[in-house]
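--- STAGE predict ---
source: upstream dedup step, 1 unique chain passed
mode: sequence only
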Amino acid sequence: MTPLYIVVLAAGQGKRMNSALPKVLQPLAAKPLLTHVLQTAQELDPDKVIVVYGHGGETVRASFAERDLTWVHQAEQKGTGHALAQALPHLPAQGVVLVLYGDVPLLQSHTLEQLIQPAHDALVLLTQHIPEPGGYGRILRDDRQQVIGIREEKDASIQEKQIHEVNTGIMAMPIEHVSHWLERLTCANAQGEYYLTDIVASAVADGVVVHTAQPTYDWEALGINDKRQLARLEGIWQRHQSEVLLGSGVTIADPDRLTLRGTVTCGQDVMLDVGVILEGNVILEDGVTIGPYCVLKNCKIGTGTVVQAYTHVEGAQLGAGNRVGPYARIRPGTITQQAVHLGNFVEVKNCTIDQASKANHLTYLGDSSIGARVNVGAGTITCNYDGVNKHRTQIGDDVFIGSDTQLVAPVTVEAGATIGAGSTIVRTAPADQLTLSRSRQLTVPHWKRPLKK
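--- STAGE serialize ---
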């Protein structure tokens, strides 16, 4: 198998972004543009990935410190041909080199495979036919429809500007030709730069066949230069992901108002209402319903569970048949079993909750182990933090906790215990007994409200 080397050109400054953040670190679907490019590159199983960087270089490198990448600095930005030349010392004598761009984030690996396969002995360009080609380099063909060159927009004649087949900049080629093709480049053009596209003429002159391939989707090769284009691609990508989910059988109330910032795995008959945001790795089992404007991040939702409107679930595992929300917040470390109810304005953090337990209103449960069939009354608070350390609360099976109770951890409520409303519990509440702690009720006779003077 021919060795594959991928060079990602990521040195652009991105002035039109009007941002202190380097262009390739601008977020698309909550990930930097360059992350999208590198993930696609890795899907191709390359022998090496080389990133040519420039503006904001140290920030860019630091963002990908854990990846196995070869970094090459382009001190002066003299065009795409000059950028590729910086990577030459890191390329072997034989193999295929694929050139990608750090600001073209949506290319699909199956599209790039079309370029790689014939590139062991040919120059292969990714081209596209678009109705309004303004701003793109045009593909020049001879009478036999063979590619003979690429003309950049600023250097094109009036006749050449009528061509609708454009260059995307993505190409693959045999490494053995790259060095002498780059040596022939000149900067005799309107921009005064070394265009990588000019190697097409060198390939033709050397008798190397120039092939073309087209992207599967018309949006794959779109680049980003400003925030408008970034927003446009965000919308395109979100809609594409919605279409994939719809094709797998997920019901989506409004595909244009679903936001996916990671990966989601869905069972059968999953329903997503409007405004849902899915982040990180989300697993939704059969029959799950997610209400409007919920945010789910790195979580698993069990079969038949209903998450009601405006609920946030992060880093949690919800069991089957749960009912959560509306306006609930389920935080990392929470694991529930089947038929658990967590209602409106309930916050749960780092808790295990056994089957059929309920906290239906206005409650904070933190760092707690809660048994089965427990009823937690409205306004209950586990006081888990002493100002320095967190402490756990243990609640056994079949416990009833009255409203407005404070459980001061570390504390245990044994199985079957009942806690009277308004209590502050600081010691173990014995099993099957009523425990309460409240001030004596006092009525003051003959008392009158003060009157305004």
